[in-house]
Inverse folding.
């Protein structure tokens, strides 16, 4: 076994899915459980084999209780580019760190209820069409634990009671909760809650969840159904029922009909994490409440008889409102995790909105089409909010470039139209 205080090397076997999201998830979870990301490999690229230094087996097990990006973790006893190198590496592994005596084992083999499971893993590269005769690397180690890949299937949106047009994929929901370092007894908020998919992932990890949405029908489970062959939503189709489906209702605080551009919260720090997927104007419109007439500055209250109407909500305004809200309401060290849609040909890192109270932790891309993508942005609150921070984005060099993405919807459908026209022309030739 590992010596007290020693830092052991572990082999992490990663899933070959959402490759950009893997490293930020592992770093966030190690940080959550008191470890630090240290590796003998400079860059992993697309490889599923990662060698990490982790302070204890307990931290390694805690990591695997959360990750959906990793399949398994092993205490690494030896590795090499050939059988000879592996044997030499195993000979040099300290006997006192081993669970048993040095190889070959003399204990009785019990395949049904083994005390320890040992694995020999071979790396043949990433090209299934060009498999080498001999592996690039060979690893041997003691199996410690498996990850949480089964959550992707058990929480699948296909099986969910209440869904919408933009319900978040289960795997990505858990990745977002992990990037946000959500833990037991946290309070997690989603200002664009929709059907509550992100709340479910956070509640699964023991956090109390709440949210808001501008759409009355979605919050109350009314109106037309999103499922095929179903015209209207049933009386029990709502966000609370989604959490009840997974035995998580006790973590449900509430969801309110509210406009994210006009937060109705008192000043204070309430949330340990804000995890959200704002609308991009593609399948769900970007909206806020207001009057069709320009309201003069200085007038904050509308007459009691005034009924707010829904107005368009520029993406740049939406994201800066979101960052300001996070800066005001997150606890120090709390995290904001959100999706940022971008038009790929024009994208540069400087377009990611910034805030003096928030530090950028990670920026991962998920492609939507040949010309658009969305980026999962994770930020951490590092400074208490002051009133002067509210409009700091107006002085930032990043503000003007990102305003160009207010036309994201037009650019998205422009690309779709061009592709359709090109396909029609090809079929006619």
């Amino acid at each position: 076994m590992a010596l007290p205080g020693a830092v052991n090397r572990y082999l992490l076997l990663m899933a070959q899915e959402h490759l950009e999201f893997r490293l930020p998830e592992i770093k966030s979870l190690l940080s959550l459980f008191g470890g630090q990301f240290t590796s003998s490999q400079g860059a992993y690229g697309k490889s599923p084999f990662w060698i990490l230094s982790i302070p204890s087996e307990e931290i390694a097990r805690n990591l695997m209780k959360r990750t959906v990006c990793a399949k398994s973790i092993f205490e690494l006893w030896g590795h090499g580019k050939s059988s000879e190198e592996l044997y030499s590496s195993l000979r040099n592994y300290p006997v006192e760190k081993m669970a048993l005596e040095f190889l070959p084992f003399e204990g009785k083999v019990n395949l049904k209820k083994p005390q320890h499971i040992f694995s020999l893993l071979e790396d043949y590269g990433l090209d299934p069409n060009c498999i080498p005769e001999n592996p690039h690397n060979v690893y041997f180690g003691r199996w410690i634990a498996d990850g949480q890949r089964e959550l992707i299937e058990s929480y699948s949106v296909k099986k969910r009671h209440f869904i919408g047009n933009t319900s978040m994929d289960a795997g990505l929901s858990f990745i977002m909760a992990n990037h946000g370092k959500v833990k037991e007894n946290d309070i997690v908020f989603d200002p664009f809650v929709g059907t509550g998919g992100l709340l479910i992932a956070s509640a699964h990890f023991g956090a109390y969840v709440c949210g808001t949405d501008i759409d009355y029908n979605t919050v109350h489970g009314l109106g037309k159904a999103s499922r095929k062959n179903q015209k209207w939503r049933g009386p029990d189709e709502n966000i609370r029922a989604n959490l009840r489906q997974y035995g998580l209702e006790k973590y449900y605080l509430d969801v309110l009909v509210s406009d994210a551009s006009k937060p109705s919260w008192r000043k204070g720090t309430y949330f340990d994490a804000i995890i959200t997927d704002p609308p991009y104007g593609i399948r769900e419109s970007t909206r806020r409440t207001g009057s069709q007439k320009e309201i003069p500055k200085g007038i904050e209250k509308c007459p009691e008889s005034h009924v707010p109407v829904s107005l368009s909500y520029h993406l740049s305004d939406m994201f800066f409102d979101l960052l300001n809200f996070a800066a005001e309401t997150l606890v120090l060290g709390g995290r904001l995790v959100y999706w940022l849609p971008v038009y790929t040909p024009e994208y540069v890192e400087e377009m990611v909105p910034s805030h003096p109270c928030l530090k950028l932790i990670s920026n991962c891309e998920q492609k939507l089409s040949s010309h658009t993508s969305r980026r999962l942005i994770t930020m951490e609150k590092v400074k208490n909010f002051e009133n002067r921070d509210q409009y700091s984005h107006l002085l930032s060099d990043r503000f003007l470039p990102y305003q160009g993405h207010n036309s994201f919807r037009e650019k998205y459908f422009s690309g779709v139209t061009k592709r359709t026209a090109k396909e029609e022309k090809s079929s006619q030739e």
Remarks:
- The chain has a mean pLDDT of 82.
